[in-house]
Every structure is written in structure tokens, then in C-alpha cells.
Sequence to fold (277 residues):
Amino acid sequence: MDTKTIDQLLDRFETTGVVGEGNPRIKAITRRLVRDLMIAIEDLDITSEEFWSGLNYFAEAGRNGELGLIAPGIGLEHFLDLRLDEAETKAGLQGGTPRTIEGPLYVAGAPVAQGEARLDDGQTAGEVVVMQGVVRGTDGKPVAGAQVEVWHANDKGGYSYFDTTQSAFNLRRTIVADAQGRYKFRSVMPVGYSCPPGGATERLLQQLGRHGHRPAHIHFFVSAPGHRKLTTQINIENDPHLWDDFAFGTRDGLVPPVHTNADRAAMNDLGVDKPFY
Ligand code: MBD
Ligand code: FE
Fold:
């Protein structure tokens, strides 16, 4: 079928069974996506079997809460970030910590702490990690009282809420920065996340000849009145998957140095990096 015939078909669909105005934006998006699908079916000669297998695939992914995992896995979430970067550059808004993907594992409502927090529930497994920083506006000035939402996986790569063996809001906190914009936290060193074995996302990635692993990372939302909200992550350096992330989230500027206790002792001898905790 040629595209002219497809467009005529779409015209007919749009004018059949009409009961109201509908939503123009949704109408435009739906028409475009259906058209693109029809053209793909035509060009790739997609069979009925393939069509229904695809539909059932997405139904299963939805039932198992994996649609949010497929979107980063096929690069769409990173693509959205690149578009936001582009729009900001055009608007003359540059600099600051780079954004990167949110992923599907944020949970709202984490406990709020002032200035500093311990993110783990007191567990002894895993390596202790501490992180501190200052939230600054694009003008470089500290943002007093900025909200720093942090969430990350445990030492087995699992996130509380989704991994029901963890306590509620384990490794999830909202830290309110102090009057100088400072925040700090103690936690357990995360391990990279992997897509659920045998799940919809992993099976698709297998068919693409790809793995479903992420390097170890810590997520952040940083927000304050009068400022754009930043969605970002840091990666833990030296992870084998650092630049081989199935979700394409690693970016220059988001891989801070990790200092071991031995490094810190040496730095303290030099009078830098005052330890806390
Ligand atoms: C994650 O932990 C994540 O951050 C993303 C983007 C996708 C899947 C799991
Ligand atoms: Fe994550």
C-alpha cells in the first residue's frame, strides 16, 4: 500500500464514529504514530504473527511493570535528554551539572532530612560510601535550602519498593541543603542494576544482541523555587559497565572521583578533605 492510500485511510478513521472534538494534540500524535506503524508494517512486511506477538509482548511488559525499562533500553529516554539539552543550548542556557535519565525506579515520598542523612536502614552488608556537595545555581551561587532527592540500588543492585526484601524507602531520602547549599549523606555503595532475568526487557535485548546491565549509579532530583529541576545521576568510577550502560545514562561530568579511606587518610595528612561521619 502506498502512503497516499495510507493517508486516505487515516482520513477515514478520523471522520468515522465521531462523537465530539476530542483532544487535538492526542489526535495528532495518534495519527502520526499509527501512520509510522503502518509504514513500518508495509516496508518491513510485518506478518500478522509478528504483529500479535509484538502486541502480546507489550501487554506482558505492561503487566510486569517493564515498559519503563524498555524505554531507556531502546534509548528513548536518553534521546529525550538530548532533545532537552538541544533546546537549552538554543535558549542560551548552558553549563552546570549535566542531566541524565530518571529511569523507572523513583518513588515519591521519601523521608526528609535537613542538611545530611544516612540513606540505609542500618545494614552492615556492603561498603560504606559518603558523598557531599554544594547545590549551585547557573550563576555559581549556592542555593540555600535546595531539595536534593537521592535514590539508589543496594549492594545487590536492587531498589527498595521494587525489591520487596528491603525496608520501605531504604536508600531513598530527600535532603534539604543548608543555608550554604551544602548536603551530605552516608550510604552503602550501590552495585549496578540488571534487568529482571527472563523478563520482557532482557528478552528483547537478547534478540538485539545486547546485555541489560547498568553501571553502579546514584540518582538525584535537585530542585529549588525559581530554578529548573535537575534530573541526574552520578556513576561510580571503575565499574566494568561504566561506558557500557544498557540505558545510555553515563555522561562526561557525572563520574566523580571515589576516594578510599586510604586516599582520605593521605589527603587528611595534607590537610584537605575534612572527613565527616
Ligand atoms: C535503573 O536503575 C535505571 O536507573 C534505569 C535508567 C533503568 C533501569 C534501572
Ligand atoms: Fe537506577
